[in-house]
# Entry
Amino acid sequence: MTCSRDKFTIHSRAVVCQDVELKGDITIGPGTVVHPKATIFAIAGPIVIGSGCIIEEAAIIVNRRKEVMRVGDNNLFEIGCRVECPSVGNFNTISTRARIHHTVRISNYCVIGAACLVVPTDDETLEDYTSIFGPAAERRTWSGRGRIQEADLRLKHAEYLREMLPKFNRLRRGDGA
# Structure
């Protein structure tokens, strides 16, 4: 069942490029950056994206559930990743070409490695500081060491993108059209 009307609420301090594909009820928080060619589909339920997130080219975020999909603050969705999980915490990194199934919930400070496929048969919640890596999607718990430097780098990255993207791309404003 698809949403009959698209409704976009884009914060005035968010940077959303014009050629982003948006469908459904989508809210984008302050300081979030959405690169050109990204796709955000709220098919069954709404999507709420927090502040300071970076959604890169060809990243796909889809909500296939009726419940609200909540994406926390300061998350990085790298090029070509696909995320369908109903909740994403704060300060997570979804690496290039990674795929997350709708039966997974991501906590905080998790890293999903490049090209990893996370498709459990039952509902699963990734604990804080979980790292998934390698072709077999092996798991490890990160000690949290360097987390402050990681956060500072992410904030600097978002600041740079908020400055540079408007110089070379047209921006979209949230008016529901």
User: Anything to note?
Assistant: The mean pLDDT is 93. Helices lie at 147-168. The radius of gyration is 15 Å.
